[in-house]
Amino acid sequence: MIGEKVKSELVRIFGKDGFRDSDEDRIAYSYDGTPVRSVLPDAIVTPSSVEQISKLMILANENKFAVVPRGSGSGLSGGSIPTENSVVLLMNKWTNVIEFDKNNLTAWVEPGVVTGKFQSLVESQGLFYPPDPGSAQICTLGGNVAENSGGLRGLKYGVTKNYVLGLEVVLPNGDVMRVGGKNMKDVAGYNLKDVMIGSEGTLGIFTKILLKLIPLPKTGRTLLAFYDSIAGAAATVSEITAARIVPAMLEFLDNPTIRAVEDFAKLGLDRNAGAVLLAEVDGAKPVVEEDLAAIEMICKKSRATTLHVARDQSEGMKLKAARRSALAALARISPTTILEDATVPRSELTTMVYFINLTAAKHNVQIGTFGHAGDGNLHPTGLTDERNEAEMKRIEEAFDDIFRKAVELGGTITGEHGIGLSKKKFLEELYNTPFVSMMKKTKEMLDPNFVLNPGKVVSVAPRCEGALPRSREQIDRVLSKMDNPAEAYF
Amino acid sequence: MTNRISDDLLTQCMHCGLCLSVCPTYALTGDEKSSPRGRIRLMKSVMESRIPVTDAFVNEMDFCLDCQACETACPAGVKYGELVESARIFVESSRKRTSLKVFILRKVVVRRRVLNFIAGIARVYQSSRVDRLVLRLLNIASKNLYNKARQLPKVSESFSINTLPEVIEPKDEWRGTVAVLTGCVMDVFFADINKDTVDVLVENGWRVVIPKDQVCCGSLNAHNGDGITPKGLARKNVDVFERTAAEYYVINSAGCGAFMKQYGDVLANDRGYSERARAFSAKVRDFSEFLVQTGYKKPGAHTCKPTAYHEACHLVHAQKVSSEPSEIVRDVADKDYRTLNEATWCCGSAGIYNVVRYDDAVKLLNRKMVNIKNSGAEIVVTGNPGCLAQIASGAKKEGLDIEVVHPATLLSRLYKANGSQ
Ligand SMILES: Cc1cc2nc3c(=O)[nH]c(=O)nc-3n(C[C@H](O)[C@H](O)[C@H](O)COP(=O)(O)OP(=O)(O)OC[C@H]3O[C@@H](n4cnc5c(N)ncnc54)[C@H](O)[C@@H]3O)c2cc1C
Ligand code: SF4
Ligand code: SF4
After folding, report:
1. What proportion of chain A, given as a percentage, has pLDDT over 70?
2. Which of B49, B77, B95 represents a domain boundary (last residue)?
3. Is B351 part of any domain?
4. Strands B248-251 and B176-180, how do they pair?
5. Cβ–Cβ < 8 Å for B22, B73
């Protein structure tokens, strides 16, 4: 616990209204969107200025407590779950769009602006901010930058990092750093901005974000294709790529997901279809028509069993309903839903999806897979009940196998949700040592006291999980289990 | 203990947070504990005895509007309405005394004679000079009470249940029999809407029965922590409505309709009633839902004024009825149809919420009024008495010339307009 002295300091910095530590508040900030895990913070603070955040970091370094930044808490890797001895730094009330520069097509925003609200604002001006995580209605732009979030339009338009031009960041020691700016070209110094993007709240706290906007595409058309097997859908994806067409969206559902969607939304999908592919092309009308015709041909060539082409936007919305209800349909099947994001090069799509289905059968668990076929970002979704310990263990083993396989195929353990707490063990195990050790050194250098979101992404602090061994006997037992006793604390 | 909040329902929440974006109370505070996800976690903590039933806990349960917008947004199908209602029952059962809120509901609203009596006094009060005198005194005594009294809509001249005949036959065509609930809040403040409802149904060839011994649907009690009274009321209504032999029970108040559609669940463990309650619920239709599903006469005439539709929580979220009423409004408004931003957001009425949590209700109402002003609408249509009163009082307070009407009133008026042409 952080102690009364620190508490009164916090009240002094943030005022009575900016500090809370009631049981109810601590419970309400003990979790994020990540399944199962939760830890109670000692207090919650809501800053109203950058200086307050600086002071908080200085106080944290002096008194060795942890600071956990939080947006809306929709993260899926545990990034905003508190740690022991921590204070939650709540950024969701920083909701101003500070500057909307129509000459440079940029916007300065505060980190608490909700992504979906920002998108509508920008689109009402004929402009476009493409990154659109499935959680856009609630997640914050600060959270998006911290997680380098992706979404459905990643294939053509890229992810959050492609739209961040500049940042104002409070560093772990309390210094305020500004990086980047409105220049489309800028090579002054190391690219520290990109080190900050995707740092999952462990290297700095974003207080202002400069985003790039692009013109809103003029038109869009949607197509939905059914296949007997996932191989047909994968062949279509490869052919589309080979034909040099870049759809704005290229999504798929596997058979278990199709069944779940049909049971839930009754859209008239073929329950026996092996896969469904959803494609959307956007841009100027002639190009859109040409691309759509080409994709239609490719689908037929790859033996799509049924093909629906939407005539207009509202029909397009109906076709997209199948993909949009995927998570809702799966989530209803069982209490605990584990939404994962193992990702492979798109050429390995078929291999990976088959592997996931086999693995689910092998461990006797339910997993439905859907996701971004175009960029190989899959969402194998485990359906279980956290109260059933045996099944939880089996599903964990299944995901172990899945992540290992993804890396073996040249893929990654997370395409967009981040490492956080959930995948730390895989990062340290499956990735090359220089990469992981450089990350650890970066963290150590910027945050030598490990006060900013410690224990996320990489562990550099001594690991004291469980009670420390005290008697000679206990210590010997621990040491006997280790090849290198020095590692016991690192 | 029978009053526990169901663990299965609680565990269904995967704490994804998607519901936060639609929750009006979260929009007001930005505080996780006044969000659906936060409240669910608090309920879980109470059930697991991590915290006792604290004042802060009770406050969050009461702050919730029970508007069920979170249910519409939730991908995991969490039955939030059931959760918050059982949490309120749990709170009541863990208290030594009945709260004033539950006392009022138990003793006043469900007893027609008492309600009649109070409405009688209110009627005299509102129609006399005493009205202004009392308001002035109240204003001196307490700003809050004064505002509440001002907010009360005008009490009906007479209750429709006393003036409408028990059976009304259609004129030419005969399509079948429907039974109508007159409702307590509806009848005290909006008896005319019941008359309009009957007119529209009759115009569309339905024989209408208004069972005289019907009772309050029980929803206000159920939403506010009283687990016992609603069961008795439900049993009584099942008895009474069965006797009408009607094919459908048409309900013009969204809150009552939502609850009557749940009678099957409310009486699920009642051996004598479970089957009959389920059959009852299967016959319940909201007024607009009924008209569109069975087909209705388009009035032909139009509102000729900018018209918008406000979606009552208990229609759009609790009953998932949205396309039918908006179809009616779009048809009668025609070119004058206006889209209302945040149309599915609670107006702050929420049963007796605007009485027990006046200040919060005002904030939500203000937000609603801003959206209405921006839409440019001069007529706002909505299918729930609470919303009618709330939005009308908002318009009055802001000095806006806006008419707030029930779809039944609108249709009835346009039928007449067309008939007289
Ligand atoms: C249903 C659902 C669908 C999703 N779909 C997608 C998807 O399609 N693509 C995708 O990429 N993700 C997706 N996500 C994951 C999640 O929404 C994103 O990671 C999102 O960016 C988190 O934003 P948040 O505001 O909720 O941040 P939080 O969850 O509160 O925090 C996330 C991380 O950011 C840090 N952080 C937050 N604010 C700041 C700040 N101002 N400065 C520094 N660090 C900060 C936190 O410490 C934490 O480590 C989904 C989640 C859900 C529940
Ligand atoms: S949307 Fe549903 S599952 Fe998600 S947090 Fe809200 S209630 Fe829980
Ligand atoms: S019922 Fe309404 S007020 Fe209550 S938690 Fe759900 S959305 Fe919020």
Report:
1. 94
2. B95
3. yes
4. parallel
5. yes
Q: Are residues A103 and A211 in the same domain?
A: yes
Q: Is A201 in the pocket of ligand 1 (CB under 6 A)?
A: yes
Nearest ligand to the CA of A141 is: 1
Residue B21 Cβ contacting ligand 2 at under 6 Å: no
CA dist., res. A85 & res. B31, Å (int): 21
The domain spanning residue A301 has which CATH number? 3.30.70.3450
Closest chain A C-alpha to B82 CA, distance in angstroms: 16
Residue type, A187: V
Tell me how many degrees the CA angle A102-A107-A108 measures, rounded to the nearest 5: 140
Residues A186, A205 within the same domain: yes
Is position A225 within any domain? Answer: yes
User: Which tokens is A190 given?
Assistant: 């190391």
**Residue in the structure block whose two tokens are 């053509």:** A156
Q: Do A264 and A228 fall within a single domain? A: yes
Nearest-CA neighbor of B270 among B223, B236, B222, B319?
Answer: B236
Quick check: is A84 in a domain? yes
Range with the poorest average pLDDT among A95-99, A480-484, B283-287: A480-484
pLDDT digits (tens, 9 = 90+) for A431-458: 888 999 999 999 999 999 999 999 999 8
**Pocket around ligand 3: residues whose beta carbon is below 6 Å from it?**
B 22-25, 36, 39, 64-70, 80
- Domain limits for position B401: 297-417
- The C-alpha atoms of residue B140 and residue B361 are separated, in whole angstroms, by 22
Domain boundaries, position A157? 97-215
In the prediction, which pLDDT does B70 show? 95
Nearest Cα neighbor of A81 from A133, A45, A138, A28 is A28
- CB distance A136 to A71 below 8 Å: no
The Cα B20–Cα B63 span in angstroms is 15
Contact A23 B51 (CB under 8 A): yes
> pTM score, two decimals?
0.85
Give the tens place of pLDDT for each residue, B248-302: 999 999 989 999 999 999 999 998 899 999 999 999 999 999 999 999 999 988 8
Q: Judge if A20 and A68 occupy the same domain.
A: yes
Q: Report the number of distinct structural domains present in chain A.
A: 4
Decide: B192 and B164 in contact? Cβ < 8 Å. Answer: no
Secondary structure percentages of chain A, helix, strand, coil, to 5:
40, 20, 40
The number of domains in chain B is 2
Place of tokens 């203990």: B1
CB-based contact A31 B15, cutoff 8 Å? yes
Do A261 and A329 meet the contact criterion of CB atoms below 8 Å apart?
yes
pLDDT in tens, A338-373: 999 999 998 898 899 999 999 999 999 999 999 999
Residue B105 CA to residue B351 CA, distance in Å, equals: 11
Give A-chain residues touching B77 at CB under 8 angstroms: 328, 331-332
Angle at B148 between CA B146 and CA B153, to 5 degrees: 120
A74 vs B17, B41, B73: nearest CB: B17
Length reported for chain B: 421
Q: Is residue A386 part of a domain?
A: no
Closest CA to A169 of A50, A68, A71: A50
CATH number of the domain within which A64 lies: 3.30.43.10
pLDDT of res. A110: 98
Residue ending a domain, among B95, B125, B149, is: B95
Last residue of a domain, one of A316, A333, A350: A333
Q: Are strands B307-309 and B379-381 parallel, antiparallel or unpaired?
A: parallel
Q: Do the domain assignments include residue A376?
A: no
